[in-house]
Structure formats: C-alpha cells, structure tokens
Amino acid sequence: MAGQSDPHLSIFSPSEVEFVAEDEIVDIVPNIRMDALNMICGDFGPFYPQVPTKVPLWLAVALKKRGKCTIRTPDWMTVDRLTQVLEAERESSREFQPLPFHYIEISKLLFDHARDDISDAYLVRSLIEDIRDVRFHKVETGLETISGRTHAVKLKNLSAMEVNIVRPFMVRTLQAFYKHDSPQMIQQADTTGSRPTPVTDRGPRRDLRRR
Amino acid sequence: MPGYFDIDDILMEDEPISVVFHVTANGVGLLDPGAESNCVEKGAKVELPFWLAHGLLSLEQAVSINPPPCFTQKTRKEIQADAACVDLRVRCPYFYELGCKIVPLVSDKSIGLFLRYAFTSRYKEVLSKSHSSSMMTVPKFVPRLTKEETRVFESARESMAAFKKWRAGGVRLHKASILGRKRKTKLPDGASTP
C-alpha cells in the first residue's frame, strides 16, 4: 500500500497514518439502543445503553461526536501505565518500550474528540508527549550509527507515526551510503589499506545486518 | 539515482572537466579558447563538460580526464580537518554524483573512499540539525551542502514539519471554494451566516 500524498516516494502523510489508525478497536459504552451494524470489516453491536462493546475507533469517534456514547480510555492510556513506560524509556537508552503501534494517533484522536472521557487528560497528554520525545531522541542517536556497512535497520517496537517521520530521511541516507559503498566505488580500497575499520559499537538495539 | 529524465543528472553532466587531448582534433577550435586555428592540438588541456569528455573518452580514447579540482589534495585536507565546515556547494553542487561518475574514468581510485569519508562525516552534522530545525529559519550550514545532502536534509525537515502540522490540528476537511460562494448568494440579505 502506498500513500496518496506523494506517489513517487511512497510516503504517507500524517493524516493518512491517522486514517489507518482509525481501524483500531476501542471499548465504548453506548447510551442508546441500536441494532448491530454489519460492515465489510465486521459486525459491531448490537448496542444497549450502559453495556460496553467493542467498535473501531472511527465509529467510536462518530458516535461520540453525536453524543451517543462514552469512549473508555484504553488500558495503556492511564497515568500509572504511562509513568511506568516513561521511566522505562528513560532507563534503557537503546530499547523501545512496547506501546500500541498507533499510540500517537489514537491518543490524538481521543484528545480531540473524547477529552471529557479521559481522566487526568492534561497529565496523560504531557506524559505521551514526553514519551514521544524520549523515543524520538533515541531514534536520532540510533541514526548516527548508520554507516556504509548498514544494509538494513531493525527497529523493534517503533510506532507507525515514528517510523513515518524518519522514513524519508532514513531511506535517502541508506541509498546514499549504499551508493558510496558499492564495490565499484571502492574497488582498490583493501589493497591501499586506507579503509577505515567498520564501526564495532553498533548498539544492541539495532540489529544491523551486514553484507 | 541517475536516469534519462532526471534533471539533476542532466545538470550534473554539465560540470566542466579538464581533459588532455591525445589526438589532434580538426574543426573543433571553439572548444579551446586559446586555439589559434580551428583545431585542438595534441596534448592541449581543455575544459569540456562532463558528458562530452565522457563521450570522447569512451568512444575514441581521444582524451584523458584529470580529476576535477574538488577532488584534489587540498580539498581532501580540508574535509579531513573539519568536514562539516567545508563549503562543497561552491566547489561543486553535484559533488557526490560527479564523483561517482568520475571514479571509473580516472586512475586515481582513492576518490571513492574520499567520497564515502566526506559523506559519512558530513552526514552527522545534517542528522543533528535536520529533525529539530524549524520551518521558519534555515540553519547556517544549509548553503554549504551539496544537492544530495540538501535532499536528505529537506526530506527530514519536511516530514517533521508535516507531523507537527498534523499534531497541531486544524481543519481536517477543506470545503471546496465553490460551495461557500454558492451558499452566500442564496441567503437572503438579512440572514446571518452560521
């Protein structure tokens, strides 16, 4: 699947990533009675007042906008859990904590449309911002280790939006390094002996596969 | 990425290259500004665009190519001293692309290594500034970057700016301008628009 915003680079715009995130399932508590909705992606409902049910995020937002339900905050979006995650992120300088793949988008949608359903909304929001900042700083320090010997980069637990932000930069960088490291560019490198030794400290977080 | 329709590839091939003629070429005196007759003497040193030099070299072995000034020892020393501070755009905006094309044509094989060294050491500087710089101000070092480095830098800056714009929110769906106009003309004069 390629993004529509730039067909040449196959880059997703942030709103396209948000669109993908809207398929994530959330819990809602409806306050109306409604028959089941039969969609291509599955059947949702039936809806009874005060009986929790699972629906995609886009449906939850649509119902919430009309005042037909309250959205239950996901487990990971509580102050306790996020504080734990933030501490763990700060402690390990290499690894990323497991968070939902779309945590940035889901939290933004919930803050935009269901702010009154989130307890300690202000604190939760600043925690998510902090987590995102810490994680992105890690990505940047990780990018410094890219060298001519890097052919693939494994980033475990990185979320959709974070990948999307670094994708164009990373792809271009890897292309450039690949070009400058191709055999015909450095054909007599080994005989001259001036080739720098490969970077040994690559950091355990990134699993760089080398040729 | 080179390609027939790539404008950067075409512009890059226009870079002047100093060549030495191995044969006497008649009727091309305009290539050599110092030529007295309408021909280029054997052993004459002439500046040709890269595409012409490449063509003459691969077809007839009529010329030999000298490495362009941006790959001389002087530039290499400067890059080794402080790579990020060297203004490569002034020397050659297509530094890396030209270098890649020059490598198979000249005897000096260390150019490939030099290119990789230059890119690796300058990449760190680009990386540290690219995601954090704002859209309003352009960092001081940007005019020193070559085309390839600028592309890397801009791609990071644009994706970060797009993300910030999305996070700040705003109008998600834009109304077509024609809809707004139609509605206004239909409303009676006294009615207030919602």
From TrEMBL, chain A:
Which residue windows does the record flag with biased composition (Basic and acidic residues)? Answer: 202-211
| Source domain of life | Eukaryota
What compartments host this protein? Answer: Nucleus
Cellular component, GO, one term: GINS complex
Q: Which InterPro entries match?
A: GINS_A, GINS_bundle-like_dom_sf, GINS_Psf2, PSF2_N
Q: What range(s) does the DNA replication complex GINS protein PSF2 N-terminal domain occupy?
A: 13-71
Polar residues composition bias: residue spans:
186-197
Q: What is its main location?
A: nucleus
Where do the record's region annotations for Disordered lie?
A: 186-211
Q: Which residues form the GINS subunit domain?
A: 76-173
One example of a Gene Ontology biological process annotation: DNA replication
Q: Which UniProt keywords apply?
A: DNA replication, Nucleus
Stored Pfam families: PSF2_N, Sld5
Record text on subunit structure and interactions? Component of the GINS complex.
- To which protein family does this belong? Belongs to the GINS2/PSF2 family.
This chain's protein is named DNA replication complex GINS protein PSF2
Tell me the classification of the organism that encodes this protein: Eukaryota, Viridiplantae, Streptophyta, Embryophyta, Tracheophyta
TrEMBL record, chain B:
The superkingdom listed in its UniProt entry is Eukaryota
Q: Where in the cell is it found?
A: Nucleus
| InterPro entries linked | GINS_A (IPR021151), GINS_bundle-like_dom_sf (IPR036224), GINS_Psf3 (IPR010492), GINS_Psf3_sf (IPR038437), PSF3_N (IPR055221)
**Domain GINS subunit: start-end pairs:** 71-167
Please give the biological process terms from Gene Ontology that the record holds. mitotic DNA replication initiation
Q: Which UniProt keywords apply?
A: DNA replication, Nucleus
- Main localization, broad class: nucleus
Q: Which CDD domains match?
A: GINS_A_psf3 (cd11713), GINS_B_Psf3 (cd21693)
Q: Which Pfam families match?
A: PSF3_N, Sld5
Q: Which GO terms describe its cellular component?
A: GINS complex
Q: Which residues form the DNA replication complex GINS protein PSF3 N-terminal domain?
A: 5-56
Q: Which family does it belong to?
A: Belongs to the GINS3/PSF3 family.
- Record-given protein name: GINS subunit domain-containing protein
Q: Which organism is it from?
A: Panicum virgatum
From which lineage does this chain's organism come?
Answer: Eukaryota, Viridiplantae, Streptophyta, Embryophyta, Tracheophyta
